[in-house]
Amino acid sequence: MSVLLWLAVALPLLGAPVVRLVPRTGGVGAIVAAGAAAVPVWVLLAQAAGGSTARSGFAWLPGAGLEVGLRMDGLSTAMSATVATVGLLVVVYAVGYFAGDPRRPTALAGLLAFLAAMQGLVLADGYLALLVFWELVGVASARLIAYSRDDSAAAPAAVRAFLTTRSADVGFYVAVLALFAANGTLAFGTDRPDGTLGALVGLGLVVAAVGKSAQAPLQSWLSAAMAGPTPVSALLHSATMVAAGVYLLMRSHTLVAGWPLEVAGWVGAITAVAGAGIALCQTDLKRVLAGSTTSQLGLMFVGLAAGGPAVALFHLVAHAAGKAGLFLTAGMFGHARDTTELEGLRGAGRDDRRVFAAFALCALSIAAVPVLAGFWSKDHIAAAAEHRVAWFALVLVAGAGAAAYLLRPALILWDRRGARGEAVAANPARSLMLTGVGATVVGSVLLGAAGGPLARLLDEPSLPTSLISVLLSLAAIALGAAAVIATIAVPAGVVDALRRQLYVDDVLRWTVQRPLRVAAVLLDRFERRVLDAAVDGIGRGGLALARSQEWIERRAIDPSVDGVAHAVGRGGENLRRVQSGHLHHYLRDAVLGAAALGFILTLTALI
Amino acid sequence: MPWLTVAVVVPLIAAALCAALPARASRLPHVVALGATAVSAIALVATVVRFDTAEGMQLVEQARWIPSIDVAWRLGVDGMALVLALLTVVLSAAAIGYGVGPRPMTRAAAGLLLLLEGSTLAFFLAEDFILFYVAFDVSLVAMYFLIALWGEERRRYAALKFFLYTLIGSLPILLGIIALFLSSDPQTFDMTRLATEHPVAGGGLGATLVFLAFFVGFAIKIPIVPFHTWLPAAHVEAPTAGSVLLAGVLLKMGTYGLVRVNLQMLPDAFATYALPIALLGLVSVLYGALVALAQTDLKRMIAYTSVNHMGYVVIAVAAAAASGISSRARELAVDGAVLQMVAHGLVTATLFFLAGFIKDRAKTRDLGKLGGLLRPMPVYGSLVALTFFASLGLPGLAQFPAELLIFLGTFDVYPAIAAVAVLGIVITAALFLLALQRAFMGTTPKGLRKLADLGARELVAVVPLVGLFVALGLYPRLALDLIRSVSWLAGGG
After folding, report:
1. Minimum mean pLDDT range among A77-86, A145-154, B120-129, B310-319
2. Residue contact A590–B175, C-beta within 8 A
3. What is the average pLDDT value for chain A, to the nearest integer?
4. Cα distance from B443 to chain A (closest Cα, Å)?
5. Domain termination residue (choose one: A499, A530, A545)
6. Which residue range(s) make up the domain with A579?
7. What is the nearest CA distance from A184 to chain B, expressed in angstroms?
8. In a domain, A509, yes or no
9. Taking a contact as any Cβ pair under 8 Å apart, which residues of chain A between 520 and 579 contact chain B?
10. Mean pLDDT lowest for which of B57-66, B321-330, B367-376?
């Protein structure tokens, strides 16, 4: 079994350079690699469903007794299967999407490398391996966001995504340090230590999860990351990478239990509503979907805090299928119209009804309309949150928002006025893309049945349900949809604020980026004008007698020769003296002799 | 076979041989230099084979020199000395292979590079304090000439500044050495004995002064803020291979001394002053990272990241000094510090090579004038990206395990300092990513579109270094299993 674990990571990892360096393998090579990688994963899932677990690792930092290893259990295999499956269908889609792009091998290799890192993340055994893959996923995703060379926003977006998540990763590092200090191990499944160390562990993990899952106030990098190609958005920014934050908290359930999880629940509930608002006010379809993703991930945080890992996992899986489908269809509309701006897409759905049908089904699932997958998974979140009035209310608002922000683009896509009435030409690339889309639709329809099995996989007997919450949720959805149909106007100021990510970016720019930049510039000036000038001043004073370059060089070389003689001579001299004297005599002489030492003494006195 | 002596002496003999070669231009000096380095490398590999990881200082080679004051030709290795000697020979091979100055390399250039290699190897392998001191100063002379003769415009200023500053730093080291000698009984310059006998025990005035004398000398060399201003000047003006050895090898002499002398020979005094020194290390971490963020010259930026990375080593050594002998924290911190020396040596050497390559082509290292380099130079761009990520501590590359060990070890002793030091990894991530964005991504300015990608000579210089820091990142035990024998002596036995 341990071979299967390593294969799950190794197959996509090996596929990446092959696809990149041997472009003749083309799309087939990438599909084979992604497909082959899914095989061991599904075998592992089947075994985990049978109740077996396994782990495999090797000593990596022997002094700390730390291993790097992989594990197979219910949670890791469920996540791994999600990643592998979405990964495979996105790769299939991408082969068609990038057809005709000379840099397709680069894109496909990037997707495979990302899949390897992500598999490592979800299969990691212990926080050391998890941290390793966590960071690698960050780099792999930044590379994919930066793919476009024509879009000047791509590189800055990639840098921003990496830096935002890495800033939050400070929490991960601190949590790891505190956990190790308290427990002497970084294994999964320990209880939270007491006192400050325990607080650092809990809070650190939550901060890291907030950054990776684009939760408020660190949500805006996800919107910027839409500069990446659409298949990348479908894989990273809906189904897998951003889900890593939720996974971290599910995995660390025992470590964050109590108030840290409470914090995560609040962050999630607030993000669920804020993300919905942001999604509602975007003018670009991909950014609508990005806002939706932060909102849905927020719901997973609530589900985790209120109902436990199985509730969050179910929504994660159902959302992965639906949201991947939305992005993939958005990419097809984008191909047809050369833009993902909503105005440019007006009527695109009428021109390509099959794709629109897929879009609509996935949207209905994300909007939690019965009896699609998202309905079942969100139902458990609402039911779990029922005993927390504030969270429950926010979940309902987010539900209304989801109906609204998905209905709005659907209406625009279906708008008769923008339709061009051109028939869509069938070609192999389109077939590949439709295959990927079709699979997500199947998932969006059928995954509603996955709740029970997933709960059993995590050893939870059942998921919370409640008729009241179902009824209230449905009412909220109807309300959200009605608001869009009635085109209830939102004040321009609110729209502007939501488009600008509620000014979080501006706040971060003025509280973090600018001060850091100013500090850097000021210190650099201090460095040049004070510190270095002082050193040069001393040097110049000492060399005031220097008349020519030659003279300086002679002086510069000689002392080292003198130094050697000095060392030996001084040693002998002192030997003689000390044979008749004492140590403190020598020390006194040494202090008197070395002015530098006196200087240092004062310096340390100051310290 | 006295392998350690062979490793040290062959480059020195070859240096003398180069001086004796005829003056006309030929490839001979280059060949001699590479041959001597190969012999050194073989001798060190033979040492690794014989090395027993369960022992501390071992394989000592001794020859009488000045018996009346117990000065001797003493060489020996523990894990730390061995990995740093290996690092030295690897980087020397890369620097010599790449060359300094006009091509074919002159006998002066080859001779000075060999002199530098031999003296730095002698420094790391020395178990006699006089040899240690002489090697320290000889390496200064060699580096002075490398900068002054083949550097850029302000080379004489930078070389002199480097030389005087570190030379002044070596004077208190000499005083400290003499003080240790005088207080040992029977008096000796044998470093192994001084490390086990602790002639200056306790934290009294005498011990404090001796401790500070060594500390200042090494602090200049490392360099620790505020003694670092010679570093950017020297790096910017030095020829590429000079920068490589300066950052890769010479800075490690400072941190090596801090462990070998301050930590092992003066543990009580170090324990007394551990907190202020850890704070100085923290200042170096943050100050180096922030000032690096403000730079536009690629070489200057890399130079300041060295201040940042060496700051982690200082923090770790201070934490080790503050924690009890044979505590887990001490072991982790020392492991991490030494691994960081090796990792930083490989990574930063590669960075300086890469900075030199672009200056050769674009005639500038100004990040504001470079742009979109990934397009004309994909191989170069990928190597830069990989090395930048190594330097910002990405897992899978060598500095991650080193910094993680340092954080783990330090957190036990100074949790607040460790937690703040972690912030350094965000600032370095920012500066490297922004540099990558400015110089490598986006559109390529007209003047840079025809730049040629790396040639064979350049690839031969950097690819082995990249391979090593990747290998160490994937499997740090390649070095850690050797390094760990230093922890035995870290407490002084």
Report:
1. A145-154
2. yes
3. 88
4. 7
5. A499
6. 562-607
7. 10
8. no
9. 520-521, 523-524, 527, 531-532, 535-536, 539, 542, 549, 552-553, 556-557, 559-560, 563-564, 566-568, 570-572, 574-575, 578
10. B321-330
Amino acid type, B437? Q
Structural tokens at position A260: 């840290």
Q: Scanning every residue of chain B, which has its alpha carbon at the shortest distance from the alpha carbon of A130? A: B395
Yes or no, beta carbons of A520 and B293 under 8 Å apart: yes
Question: What DSSP string runs through B318-356?
Answer: HHHHHSPTT-HHHHHHHHHHHHHHHHHHHHHHHHHHHHH
Express each pLDDT in A193-218 by its tens digit: 999 999 999 999 999 999 999 999 99
* pTM for the predicted model, two decimal places: 0.92
Mean pLDDT score, A555-583: 52
Asked if residue A574 and residue A475 are part of one domain, the reply reads no
User: Looking at the structure, do residues A144 and A215 belong to the same domain, yes or no?
Assistant: yes
In a domain, A523, yes or no: no
**How many domains, chain A?**
2
Q: Do A586 and B164 touch (CB under 8 A)?
A: no
* Bridge partners, A284 (sequence order): A341
Sign of CA dihedral A518, A519, A524, A527: positive
Chain A neighbors of B394, CB-CB under 8 A: 135-136, 139
In a domain, A547, yes or no: no
Question: Which of A564, A570, A540, A543 has its CA nearest to residue A554?
Answer: A543
Residue A200's closest chain B neighbor by CA?
B419
- At B144 the pLDDT is 96
Q: Do A170 and A244 belong to one domain?
A: yes
Pair (A455, A579) in one structural domain: no
Q: For A452-474, what is each residue's pLDDT tens digit?
A: 999 999 988 888 888 888 999 99
Arithmetic mean of pLDDT, A46-53: 91
Q: For residue A242, is pLDDT > 80?
A: yes
Give me B211's structure tokens.
Answer: 């401790």
Tokens read off for B492: 């002084």
**Residue A380 lies inside a defined structural domain of this protein:** yes
Cβ contacts of A170 within 8 Å, gap of 6 or more: A204, A207, B422, B423, B425, B426
Asked if the Cβ–Cβ distance from A575 to B138 is below 8 Å, we say no
Chain A residues whose CB is inside 8 A of the B168 CB are 596
pLDDT at B56: 84
Q: What are the residues facing A71 on neighbouring strands?
A: A55
Taking CB atoms and an 8 Å limit, are A61 and B273 in contact across chains?
A: no
Looking at residue B327, its pLDDT comes to 84
Contact yes or no for B182 and A575 at CB 8 A: yes
Number of domains in chain B: 1
